[in-house]
Amino acid sequence: MTDYQIIEEEGFRYVDQGEGSEPLVLVHGLMGGLSNFDALIQYFSRTHRVMIPLLPIFELPLKKATLGGLKDYLIRFIDYMAVDKIHLVGNSLGGHLSQLYALDYLEKVKSVTLTGSSGLYENAFGSGFPNRQNYDFIKQRTEKTFFDPAIATKELVDDIFATVNDRNKAIRIITTAKSAIRHNLGGDLHKLTVPTLLIWGKNDTITPPDVGEKFHELIPNSQLIWLDKCGHAPMMEHPEAFNMYLEEFLKGIG
After folding, report:
1. Taking residues 245-250, what's their average pLDDT?
2. Half-sphere exposure of 145 toward its Cβ, with a 13 Å CA cutoff?
3. What is the pLDDT of residues 109-118, one digit of tens each?
4. pTM (predicted TM-score)
């Protein structure tokens, strides 16, 4: 993975790359981070201003370790960056946050791209980690995120294993995941009227294909792209195809 300068100021940690005028805000998932978007950052920093807030999933006070707490953080971050007409790209929980932001601040959003997004329903780790000290169990669960289990490198598995075996982090993951499951957006998505791109893995077992189809049905100005032999993180498994479809979509918006 490329080493990016992480800026720390005013309570935010983020990456700000590229010389383009149009802001592209990438929102990672519950177990995600910069590495998930590596190819996307490199590609689009040539044409856009790419910003990635590092969500404080493990730093928020426990009572704020919820979808609402992370949404408030994203709102404050975008306000702090003083950007407008943004393109939001969210994976998994990051997609859920992107939808929440867009629904509240539609006038500030030029487009939304969702990939493997929560917001309707998902099959995650569940309500706890009963076998969290079993490395092979965590390895298998991580591999199921992808169609190609080789994407789940030892470094990635080690990182997730360490995270779920940190009691404070595990509690925050479970609390945040439960709050996301409770916050179903099905009744609100008709109000998400900005151009929306859905890039979905045909082999996603966490947010299966019927979730992508349901988003497409409920979001009025949406288009759905399928990627074959692809799981829950298309931008990691098929970065070239992902970037091509996203670039075409952004050019089409003008």
Report:
1. 98
2. 29
3. 999 999 999 9
4. 0.93
Residue 2 within any structural domain of the chain: no
Distance CA 173, CA 148 (A): 25
CB neighbours of residue 183 within 10 Å: 17
What are 10-65's pLDDT values in tens digits? 999 999 999 888 999 999 998 888 889 999 999 999 999 999 999 999 988 888 88
Residue given tokens 């490395």 in the structure block:
135
Q: Please say whether the beta carbons of 57 and 70 come within 8 A.
A: yes
In a domain, 196, yes or no: yes
* Residue 139 located in a structural domain: yes
Q: Which sign does the torsion angle of CA 91, 92, 94, 97 carry? A: positive
Residue 74 lies in a domain: yes
